[in-house]
Amino acid sequence: MPVNITVPELSSAAAAGKSLFDENCAACHGNNAAGSPDGPPLVHIIYEPGHHSDASFYLAVSQGVRQHHWTFGNMPAQPHVSEKDVALIIEYVRELQAANGIR
Predict the structure, then answer these.
(1) What is the CA radius of gyration of the chain?
(2) Which residues of the chain are modeled with pLDDT < 50?
(3) Which CATH class is domain 12-99?
(4) How many alpha carbons lie under 13 Å from residue 29 in its C-beta half-sphere?
(5) Share of the chain above pLDDT 90, in %
(6) Which residues, listed in sequence order, are joined to residue 75 by a DSSP beta bridge?
(7) How high is the pLDDT of residue 1?
């Protein structure tokens, strides 16, 4: 299921977000948000900013998400990830998306 990802040179905020992503998200969403057998890729047109705004990422982390685009099951809330950390993770994901033509 993983997709091929081009990883750009990251801003300092996105680099901090990458570390947080690796620690908190990669187990399901894969290295570089490419997806895994346990969760969908976030570098995918479904998660473009016009369809899934930054607010949707905050809600997913704070409240969890019911399965709706994929067949991986529901995403549980991640209460151990702070809003500040989510902001940095979003920076990372959005830079990956932009580098891969998702704007």
Answers:
(1) 12
(2) none
(3) mainly alpha
(4) 20
(5) 94
(6) 65
(7) 58
Nearest to 21 by CA among 48, 57, 51: 57
Full-model pTM: 0.95
Contact 7, 102 (CB under 8 A): no
Which pLDDT score, from 0 to 100, does residue 46 have? Answer: 94
Q: Please write down the long-range contacts of 5-12, taking CB distance under 8 Å and 24 or more positions apart.
A: 5/32, 5/33, 5/34, 5/41, 5/43, 5/96, 5/100, 6/99, 6/100, 7/32, 7/96, 7/99, 8/95, 8/96, 8/98, 8/99, 10/92, 10/95, 11/91, 11/95
Extents of the domains making up the chain: 12-99
Amino acid letter, residue 53 = S
Report pLDDT for 78.
98
Which tokens in the block code for residue 2? 């993983």
